[in-house]
């Protein structure tokens, strides 16, 4: 059904793109990244970014005295592409297209759609669903920084001034500081408490995905060093294993709350990476004659989530293959 819908979209234009056309590229990216042709999502992502840059949306500032729906819609669309750019590039192993120094855009307003015609004022007592986007964008910015600095080519690292092993420690420390600062800035309704997860369906999903993504970024920061022979190896392995355990705990609660519902694609890919980290750790422990019982229990959670995914593979082709 999805391919039939995608085939009807007209995506070639010779004039300035409309808001809905640019947004259609975002939808195509979301569809493709979960399909059997996930790598094609990167090309459509680039087209959407170029259309935004053609319109000058990468250098647009908000006029606080003239808030309007059109500006906020374009603003939200830009940040959706920034979010997708970092996530998709990490997912399929491609360089990102939107670098922080190449744009200057105000963050999205944390105001839900129903309050746009009420002076763009969110009631104090009601958490905005847009807070998820704002904090997710900030987290993916750290992911993008990680990709540029730790997963760059040798030539790029030379240009960045990476001359010794001490630079690795410095970069990792800076990224750790960024991600810890991000976690400390989360509002209470988006924080994950495994003993008391949010009752609201929307806030439950947002908190689960956001915090699983946080642990995923932790692994992305430390994964390059877990098998290196330097001072980063032991702490990096410990951080990756703890992050993997935390992601699988979130997945366990997700299963209990939403059992046969389709898991989030982002949650699935995070769980896959968590399981991979634990398998590698278990391999090392077994060779050293150590117990692997604790990690086996966590892998059981991962296998249950992927088993659910098998029932929905017709919707997300990458549910199992991610």
Automatic annotation (TrEMBL):
Keywords: Nucleus. Residues 41-114 form the Xylanolytic transcriptional activator regulatory domain. Coiled coil: none annotated. Pfam families: Fungal_trans. InterPro entries: AtrR-like, XnlR_reg_dom. GO terms for molecular function: DNA binding; DNA-binding transcription factor activity; zinc ion binding. GO terms for biological process: DNA-templated transcription. This is Xylanolytic transcriptional activator regulatory domain-containing protein. It comes from Mycena citricolor.
């Amino acid at each position: 059904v999805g391919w039939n819908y995608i085939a009807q979209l007209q995506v070639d234009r010779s004039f300035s793109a409309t808001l809905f056309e640019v947004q259609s590229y975002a939808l195509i990216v979301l569809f493709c990244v979960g399909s059997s042709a996930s790598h094609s999502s990167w090309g459509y992502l680039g087209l959407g970014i170029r259309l935004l840059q053609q319109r000058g949306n990468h250098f647009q500032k908000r006029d606080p005295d003239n808030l309007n729906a059109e500006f906020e819609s374009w603003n939200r669309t830009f940040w959706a592409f920034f979010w997708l750019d970092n996530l998709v590039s990490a997912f399929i192993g491609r360089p990102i297209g939107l670098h922080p120094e190449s744009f200057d855009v105000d963050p999205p307003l944390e105001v839900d759609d129903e309050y746009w015609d009420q002076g763009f004022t969110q009631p104090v007592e009601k958490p905005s669903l847009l807070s998820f986007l704002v904090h997710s964008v900030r987290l993916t910015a750290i992911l993008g920084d990680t990709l540029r600095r730790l997963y760059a080519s040798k030539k790029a690292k030379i240009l960045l001034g990476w001359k010794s092993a001490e630079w690795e420690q410095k970069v990792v420390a800076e990224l750790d500081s960024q991600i810890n600062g991000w976690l400390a800035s989360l509002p209470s309704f988006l924080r994950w408490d495994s003993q008391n997860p949010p009752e609201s369906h929307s806030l439950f999903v947002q908190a689960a995905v956001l915090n699983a993504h946080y642990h995923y970024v932790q692994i992305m920061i430390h994964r390059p060093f877990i098998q290196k022979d330097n001072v980063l190896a032991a702490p990096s392995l410990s951080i990756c294993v703890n992050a993997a355990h935390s992601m699988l705990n979130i997945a366990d609660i997700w299963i209990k709350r939403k059992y046969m519902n389709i898991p989030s694609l982002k949650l699935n890919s995070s769980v896959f990476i968590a399981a991979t980290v634990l398998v590698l750790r278990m391999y090392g422990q077994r060779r050293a004659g150590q117990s692997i019982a604790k990690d086996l229990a966590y892998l059981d959670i991962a296998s249950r989530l992927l088993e659910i995914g098998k029932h929905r593979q017709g919707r997300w082709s990458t549910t199992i293959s991610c």
